[in-house]
Amino acid sequence: MTEPRRALITGIAGQDGSYLAELLLSKGYEVHGIIRRSSSFTTGRIDHLYQEPHQEHSKLFVHFGDLADGQCLTNLVQEIQPDEIYNLAAQSHVRISFDMPLYTHDITGAGALRILEAARQLNKTKPVRVYQASSSEMFGDVLETPQTEATPFRPCSPYACAKVFAFHQTVNYREAYGLFACNGILFNHESPRRGEQFVTRKITRAAGRIREGLQEKLYLGNLEAKRDWGYAKEYVEAMWLMLQHDDPNDFVIATGETHSIREFLDIAFESVGLNWHDYVEIDPQYYRPTEVNLLLGDASKAKDILGWEPQMTFRSLAQLMAESDLQLAVNERLVRENSNTLT
Ligand code: NAP
Ligand code: F7E
């Protein structure tokens, strides 16, 4: 019997890491993930994977580690001997990167280089393929629309600058050392597992809680920005496809549509039977020193070479998230009511 393929995912407990782990387990991979130490549990998005093995021989293993600790990453890569490494870990919040520029540089930028270096060492004795989670934020103050793999970068935040650094290091490790390393330039992608500090999830979480009487107002920043929003579960398939192709390459992954925060608000609040104009207030603390006003991706290369295409529409995505968060809010209300009855 052949050994299962082995994957290592940094950031396995994040939105994308959890969907990617599910996908790889369903394909029979042995999946190893890195989580960092925290004073509370952070594995809520992957806990179900321990209980529901997708196939007889698939297995999930979680290791403590941190993108700040290069020695630990090298040790883990040597110990696990993965066939594929997906570097998804990052300080991934753009506005917070203005508060923590050096930390963001160290984790999101230099952290990727630490992974590449660990992979380069392994690649001397065993072939390994590396996926780097690059971002549409690298296009920043965009120099052309739509953005493709050929669009020059114009980063507008410490986060985007760190991702540009990681992008170029990935290309350089490919060219200098022959490492099979790919950049997925993913545009915004969302899901019911999206972190609650990102605008889509913040909106759907609030819509549900307001509907259930658990919250009164929603405070937001710039409502005019436009993003190309896709579905995270579909985007992790593109990551996997990149590492299955014969040649390493860089790919834009996007829907080819752009929508404003206002449009997302319309659908999310309408889905729970409310009008957002009655509840949303602007709080300048959510403005950014420099804003990315418009992102719109052209994923033709991924369609032509990988056969990847998005399926989920913008409206369906916003509705899916709003419905999921309404159910969460209903549960939260019921728990509160029960605890009031018991006390
Ligand atoms: P996410 O939900 O924020 O997940 C990031 C993960 O990285 C979390 O599990 C986090 O751990 C982990 N992490 C943070 N700092 C770490 C460190 N120092 N060492 C080890 N792990 C660390 O992000 P996502 O939305 O899944 O995105 C995945 C990747 O794609 C990120 O690199 C992001 O920058 C990039 N990206 C995302 C999008 C998007 O729209 N979602 C688009 C383009 C690119 P904790 O759980 O402990 O915080
Ligand atoms: O902001 C505006 C904000 O934080 C989207 C990350 O996954 O995608 C993500 O970065 C827009 C911005 O995502 C609030 O000013 C208004 O214009 O949801 P976001 P992002 O900055 O686009 C890229 C591709 C990544 O790579 C990143 O890792 O929404 N906005 N009011 C707000 N944003 C937030 N967070 N909170 C607000 O209250």
Describe, in plain words, how this protein is organized in 3D.
By secondary structure, the chain is of the alpha/beta class. The chain has a domain at 6-194 and 228-257 and 295-311: 3-Layer(aba) Sandwich (Rossmann fold), CATH 3.40.50.720. Helices cover 44% and strands 15% of the residues. It is built from 11 helices and 13 strands. The strands form 4 sheets. A 7-stranded parallel β-sheet has the order 3-2-1-4-5-6-11, with helices on both faces. Strands 7-10 form a two-stranded parallel ribbon. Helix 6 links the parallel strand 5 (129-135) and strand 6. Helix 1 crosses helix 8 (232-244). The model has no long low-confidence stretch (mean pLDDT 96). Ligand F7E binds next to helix 4 and helix 7. Residues 92, 94-95, 135-137, 187-188, 197-199, 202, 220-222, 225, 227, 261, 286, 288, 291 line the site of ligand F7E.
